[in-house]
Design goal:
It is a single chain. With 468 residues, this protein is of the alpha/beta class. 38% of the residues lie in helices and 20% in strands. It contains 17 helices and 22 strands. The protein has helices at 2-7, 13-18, 41-52, 87-103, 128-141, 165-172, 186-192, 198-210, 229-242, 273-289, 306-313, 353-361, 375-390, 395-402, 406-409, 411-422, 443-447, and strands at residues 23-24, 59-66, 68-69, 81-82, 112-120, 143-144, 151-156, 176-182, 215-222, 246-251, 293-296, 299-301, 317-319, 322-324, 329-334, 339-342, 345-348, 369-372, 392-394, 426-428, 432-435, 464-465. Strands 2, 5, 6, 7, 8, 9, 10, 11, 12 and 15 form a 10-stranded mixed sheet that branches. A 3-stranded antiparallel sheet has the order 16-17-18. It has a 3-stranded antiparallel sheet with strand order 19-21-20. A hairpin with a 2-residue loop joins strand 11 (293-296) and strand 12 (299-301). Helix 4 (87-103) packs parallel to helix 5, helix 5 packs parallel to helix 6 (165-172) and helix 9 (229-242) runs parallel beside helix 10.
Length: 468
């Protein structure tokens, strides 16, 4: 039953339209707006010590944030700094290396790093020499796993990749890459200030394959100004013909009051809600025809990709890096705005660069805010994680793992699921809660029923998206 749910999903425009509201993407539970500045450096140190004291300490995942971009993409809501001054990369790197030297001793040396991800911003704002210095510093202070399952991934802007860069990245140990594309339509690219050719993008994909990268991901966005079925269809055809191992199809959320760059977008060019739904439907149809499997939220993968296999085997995990196959690891975030998940705690570095720099220069761990999860958070996080990764919650597993009577403990969530079940999004019985094929595209709506913070009037929506 579960396997068929993982491979099939139904597109219901009316249902998507009715449930088109902002909500968390559940890269964590609780979500970041629940973090408090009452959790600081001492809390992070305590969490690291407790994680080392576990009978079998978890392996480690490392995330390093590189905030710089050479030019603004008007749709972007990421934490980034626009500059053409390459010297800022060197200055940032020197502090990042110092942060690594402060954080690494808190974790036992024998805890293998199974995953490394560089995100941004534009990580390849740093040149290959600087990236090599970063990786070398991480390798000196942490113990990189020698497992063939080790994942070293990097987000790349194809416009900034030089001919020898991919070979150099492979030599550093990188074996996964994620490329921003968004749309190849020239009119759309001009409207969002991201001019990027098909040729340079395909050249990067080919170079990754030539140098034995295990997978390549391509990011697309639907709902951008000037998009239409013809142009976006051509983009989808070009991308699927290149056969990236993974695809992320994100919904553009126009929030100019929150993201200054979006004020440059001509709102008259944005697709209507109906047209935007049509773009999503087109993407789903074309990806299905090309053999991609829907993983969850915005993500698709070829059946032989590690994400698809992990989902089939029950080993898929979701965190601040998105979907991952390494559920059994503590996540350490490094750099401005980075978030860590160590044991039953979350912690985040300052989002503004001067505050992060000041902490590093003062010799302090740059922990801005965070939280210690309580028992209820842990139980609900487990249910939401299961939903986001497999589309189902196994009731017997939850009762055994947490010592609860599921129907009593989650009576509030079960009440909120009733209208969703009536709409055909979810099935509820004594053994499980399962998203239906109609509900697979609305997993976060189902998951939100288990989120106690959303039921509080003062709660903010977190790192959110629109359903369409």
């Amino acid at each position: 039953m579960l396997r068929s749910m993982l491979t099939h999903h139904s597109f219901d425009a009316d249902l998507l339209r009715r449930y088109d509201r902002t909500g968390p993407r559940y890269t964590s539970y609780p979500t970041a707006p629940q973090f408090s500045d009452g959790f600081g450096e001492a809390g992070f140190r305590d969490a690291a010590a407790r994680s080392n004291a576990e009978p079998i300490p978890r392996r480690l995942s490392l995330y390093a944030h590189i905030p710089f971009c050479f030019s603004p993409c008007f749709y972007c809501g990421c934490n980034r700094i626009i500059t053409r001054d390459a010297a800022r990369g060197a200055t940032y790197l020197s502090r990042l290396v110092r942060e690594i030297a402060m954080v690494a001793p808190l974790f036992d040396r024998d805890r293998d790093v199974i995953q490394l991800h560089l995100g941004g911003g534009t990580p390849n704002f740093l040149d290959t020499g600087q990236l090599e210095e970063l990786v070398d510093s991480l390798g000196q202070h942490f113990h990189f796993s020698a497992s063939p399952q080790r994942d070293f991934s990097i987000e790349l802007d194809p416009r900034c990749v030089r001919p020898h860069d991919i070979q150099a990245l492979a030599a550093m140990g990188f074996n996964r890459a994620s490329l921003g594309v968004q749309d190849f339509d020239p009119a759309v690219q001009e409207a969002v200030n991201r001019i990027q050719s098909v040729e340079e993008t395909l050249a990067v994909i080919e170079a990754c394959r030539r140098h034995d990268f295990r997978s390549v991901n391509v990011d697309l966005i639907y709902g951008l100004p000037g998009q239409n079925r013809e142009g976006f269809g051509l983009t989808l055809d070009i991308v699927t013909a290149a056969r990236p191992d993974r695809l992320a199809i994100y919904s553009y959320a126009h929030l100019p009051q929150m993201f200054r760059a979006q004020r440059q977008i001509d709102e008259a060019l944005l697709p209507s809600p109906e047209d935007k739904l049509g773009l999503l439907q087109l993407a789903i149809e074309k990806l299905a025809e090309a053999g991609y499997r829907y993983i969850g939220m915005d993500h698709f993968a070829l059946p032989e990709d590690d994400l698809a296999r992990a989902q089939e085997q029950g080993g898929l995990h979701r965190n601040f890096m998105g979907y991952t196959t390494h559920a059994d690891s503590d996540l350490i975030g490094l750099g401005v705005s980075a978030i860590s998940h160590v044991g039953d705690t979350y912690s985040q570095n300052p989002r503004d660069l001067p505050a992060w720099e000041h902490a590093i220069d003062a010799g302090r761990l740059p922990v801005w805010r965070g939280m210690q999860l309580d028992a209820d958070d842990i139980v609900r996080a487990d249910a939401i994680q299961q939903l986001m990764c497999s589309g189902a919650v196994d009731i017997a597993t939850m009762e055994r793992r947490h010592g609860i009577a599921f129907a009593d403990y989650f009576s509030d969530a079960l009440d909120r699921l009733v209208p969703l079940a009536a709409d055909g999004l979810v099935e509820v019985d004594a053994t499980a809660i399962r998203s239906t094929s109609r509900g697979r595209l609305l997993l976060r709506i189902i998951a939100a029923c288990f989120d106690r913070y959303l039921q509080q009037p003062s709660s903010a929506p977190g790192r959110f998206s629109k359903a369409i």
